[in-house]
UniProtKB/TrEMBL annotation:
Boundaries of every Metallo-beta-lactamase domain copy: 79-246
Protein name: Metallo-beta-lactamase domain-containing protein
Superkingdom, taxonomy of origin: Bacteria
SMART domains per record: Lactamase_B
Gene3D superfamilies reported for this sequence: Ribonuclease Z/Hydroxyacylglutathione hydrolase-like
Cross-referenced InterPro entries: MBL_Glyoxalase_II (IPR051453), Metallo-B-lactamas (IPR001279), RibonucZ/Hydroxyglut_hydro (IPR036866)
Renumbered residue ranges of the record's region Disordered: 1-22
PANTHER family assigned: CONSERVED PROTEIN, HYDROXYACYLGLUTATHIONE HYDROLASE GLOC
Length: 267
């Protein structure tokens, strides 16, 4: 090691300038040629033993249901859930909430859903769309959201979703359900299994294990609870699976006995 003109240390390249402990050239040492090693991206591993419990940095989990697969991945510091629904017969898919960690979301899509057709944002809160702009640019597919939340998103939706609309990818159809309260334009998506089996509800921040999502005042709470009761609990059976925007899954059957408690406590 020599001192450069400014007195800073300089490393000379070539094995003849690297010496071992005995002062002789250590010709067995590698020569640095100025290039960096090529880093190859490791394939994303998906667990097929679905439990519904994922955490940031953990492997995504995939559930197979009649007609579709549902992949759940947690991203970001707020443990946001990203969902990928893929039609089993056509491979076409929809992504629900490009919430964070665009690189991971894009890798999930590239390796496991190359025929992505739509990105749906469940509501306007930033933790649910931090990766939306990057993912939409990388995939070049349309985005969708409810009109009452559309203006707050970084990407203007190509499609505006209203209550009663449907989202179709391949042979899979998801029903759009407007749930006002957590935000003005929050939506849930309902996938009913092929052949009329059980329903899978992607509820954003409108319904969780233990209660509805946070609301700003009593009026918004009353609106959200009313929508959740009439549009979800009154419409779907107890075996309906609820996939929330954060945390673990639940079922309508597990939550139904507690509706009165939620109403009394006001949240």
């Amino acid at each position: 090691m020599n001192a450069g003109p400014s007195g800073r240390a300089m490393v000379s390249r070539g094995t003849d300038r690297f010496c071992g402990t005995d002062g002789r050239p250590a010709t067995h040492l590698p020569v640095f040629d100025g290039s960096l090693p090529i880093m190859t991206e490791q394939p994303m591993v998906i667990e097929d033993s679905y439990t519904g419990h994922v955490s940031p940095g953990s492997a995504p989990q995939r559930r197979t249901v009649p007609g579709a697969t549902i992949t759940k991945m947690s991203v970001g510091p707020m443990d946001n859930n990203v969902y990928l629904v893929v039609c089993s017969t056509t491979g076409k898919s929809v992504l629900i909430d490009a919430a964070n960690e665009a690189d991971r979301v894009n890798q999930l899509i590239g390796e496991h859903a190359p025929s992505l057709e739509l990105i749906v944002t469940t509501h306007q809160h930033g933790d649910h769309w931090l990766a939306l702009e990057d993912v939409a640019a990388a995939t070049r597919v349309d985005t969708a959201a409810h009109p009452l939340d559309a203006d707050a998103l970084p990407v203007r939706p190509d499609r505006l979703l209203e209550d009663g609309d449907t989202v179709t990818v391949g042979d899979v159809t998801l029903d759009v359900i407007h749930l006002a309260g957590h935000t003005p334009g929050s939506v849930a998506l309902a996938l009913t299994e092929a052949g009329g089996g059980r329903t899978h509800l992607f509820t954003g921040d409108s319904l969780f294990p233990g209660g509805v999502g946070k609301t700003a005042d009593a009026g918004k709470f009353a609106s959200l609870l009313s929508d959740v009761e009439t549009k979800l609990f009154d419409r779907y059976g107890d075996d309906t699976v609820v996939y929330p925007g954060h945390g673990d899954d639940t079922t309508l059957g597990a939550e139904r006995p507690h509706l009165g408690e939620w109403r009394e406590r006001g949240w």
